[in-house]
Structures are given as structure tokens and as C-alpha cells.
Amino acid sequence: MPQAVAGPEIERLIQLLGRMPGLGPRSARRAALQLIKKRETLLAPLAEAMRVAAERIVVCRSCGNVDTRDPCTICADHSRDPTMLVVVEDVSDLWALERSGAVKARYHVLGGVLSALDGVRPEHLNIARLVERAAEPGVGEIILALNATVDGQTTAHYVTESLKPLGLTITRLAHGVPVGGELDYLDEGTLTAAIRSRTAF
Amino acid sequence: MPQAVAGPEIERLIQLLGRMPGLGPRSARRAALQLIKKRETLLAPLAEAMRVAAERIVVCRSCGNVDTRDPCTICADHSRDPTMLVVVEDVSDLWALERSGAVKARYHVLGGVLSALDGVRPEHLNIARLVERAAEPGVGEIILALNATVDGQTTAHYVTESLKPLGLTITRLAHGVPVGGELDYLDEGTLTAAIRSRTAF
């Protein structure tokens, strides 16, 4: 236990900052000091933004997204393609896809992936609700936008099995060379996938 | 300007988090999501700790430390050696020395170092107040605990000149091999200093 070098209020701030992802004990101290120095422009507004977030953010009961409304802004957006559901592991993946603007559809956040190692079983994921939503009239395609990891692909297979009785089109993201990627730095699996799925030029 | 992918409350949280030291736009999003997931255990307490800090923390008018009281806990601590003042660049250096427990004295935070490049001149630093404090009866030694950088050493020389009329003992931190340090990884300046200041074994 290191000696407390500042008052209890500052020590508590440092301790809580140190539990944020990406900040350790040392960087938490540096962050606390920077925040205190920028009290008016950063510390007070951030405290308020966090309070508002803590009070008002809810998990969408339909898709698992986080928002200040339930159903979330995306589920409530009637301009989105109602025939597709994009299945993602986590809200961060939903955000990444929204930033790309690649698809104007609704999402379904599983809340993780199956993992024998971490003891994550199907009942821990938001799969039952996905099957319900997929069975709603009008849904024709399920896009599995899961990470190209072993656990992600295992989950994709499990979800596919769960949805099979509905007779929907189930697709997954293409594998290939990332845009801007250099072949020299890519693994063999990606290169093999890119060759196999080559397209006409 | 990337597309807003979440509600305005979440976007604002991400934007403010991204201005924290050590967090960029991408890690701010990850941090925001982690905070939202740990709403009860981290987000709400952190918001409250930040609010308290923003409201109650003041800069000690005597030494420049940050605390919820003025004079700060260290200046008000009568068990500390009243004959010494430890001069540091920043509050983070004060904290580092306090953690080490190396000295039980009071501090003086300059609030930076002289820098021709950054346009930091003596009047921008807390030097006038240092001269006042050093002139108080009972003070016998000023320890310059400034960083061993060019600007730090320039500042040390300037402070020494400013304090010279008072006829106090002025000392600086020893240069040498860091405890646990390997010679192979040290620069020539440090090794030369360590050889010059060698001590009997």
C-alpha cells in the first residue's frame, strides 16, 4: 500500500481513474493531475457528462445497444432496412460498423462470444432474443458481423445452427486483404482467403 | 467529422474522455463503453469523485500543491522539518518524492521550468514566492529536486542565483545509477556522473 500523498478526495479520484481501461496506477496519477489543472475546461464537464451517462444510459431491450432511450435510436429509426439484422459481439463493433456507414440496418448485440476457456456458454449470450427477432415477419437476412477469431467463428456456427429452422439467408463478412493493407504483413490465412474469394478486375 | 454513432450524451462523454491524457479518440470510445458497462461500480463513483475534486480542490497559496485545503496538508503538517524546502517543478514530482518517503520537509512547486523554446520566463514560475518563503526565519537549506533535463538544470541555476543573497545552503539531487539500473542501458552522462561521485564501499 503506497503512502497517500494527496488528500482523500484526490486519492479516491486517482484510485477510480486507475480502474479505467488503458490507465494504470501511474498514468492515473498523471491523468488526475491533468484533470485538476484543467478543472473548468475538462474535469467539471467530464464529471457532469459521466453523471448524465450513469443516470440516463440504458441497454436497449430489443438489440442490446446502449443509449439513453429504449428502444434505442437505431431500433427506433424507421428509415433502416427492416429485412436485415446485423449480429455483432459487442456495442463497440456496432459503433465501428455505424462509423463505416456500410449498412443501414438494425443490429443485434450478442454481448460476447462463446468461449470454452472463459466459460461463456450460449445461455450467457443474447441468442434467444436474436432467434425471436429473426422470426419476426419481414426479416430475410442475418449478417453475422463477428470477429474473425476462433471464438467469433465458433459463435457464428452456433448462431447459424440456432437460426436454421427459420430458413433465412445467413451471411458473414468477407475475408480478404484490408483496404490499404500490404500483403507482406498479412498472415497466410488471410492471403489464402483473399485468393480463394478473388473477384474479376 | 465522423458520424455520431451513439446518442448525444454518449458522444459528449467520448469527446471529453478523448481529451484526457493518454486517451485518444479510439481508446476514449473503448473507455466510454467500459464505463457504461460498469455503471454502478465505476462510472457513477468516478463522476462523483470528479465532481468533488472539481468543487473542492484548490492550489495551496504557500507551496503550489493541490489539495482540498489551503494551506495544504503538507504545509500544515507541523511534524515536518521546518529548516528545509524542497523545490520541485510540478505537483507530480512532489507526489513522487512523498511516495519515496525520502524527505519529511515542505515543498515548493515552481509550476514548470524555464524554457526559451516554450517562452517560459522566470515571471511565469512561482519563484518570487519561493524567495519569500526561503527568507522566512528558520529555513536553512533549499533542496533543488528538479528534473535532470537541460531546462530543469537551467531553472536550477536561475533559482540558485535568485536565492544567493539569502546565504542559504542550496543542494541538488545526486546524479548516478538508478537503483536496479543496468549500466549497459545508461547514457554516458549518467555513467560519468556516477563515476565522478563514487563513494567508498
UniProtKB/TrEMBL annotation, chains A, B:
A zinc finger (C4-type) spans 60-75. The keyword Nucleus does not apply. GO terms for biological process: DNA recombination; DNA repair. Keywords: DNA damage, DNA recombination, DNA repair, Metal-binding, Zinc, Zinc-finger. GO terms for molecular function: DNA binding; zinc ion binding. Residues 83-178 form the Toprim domain. The keyword Iron-sulfur does not apply. May play a role in DNA repair. It seems to be involved in an RecBC-independent recombinational process of DNA repair. It may act with RecF and RecO. Belongs to the RecR family. This is Recombination protein RecR.
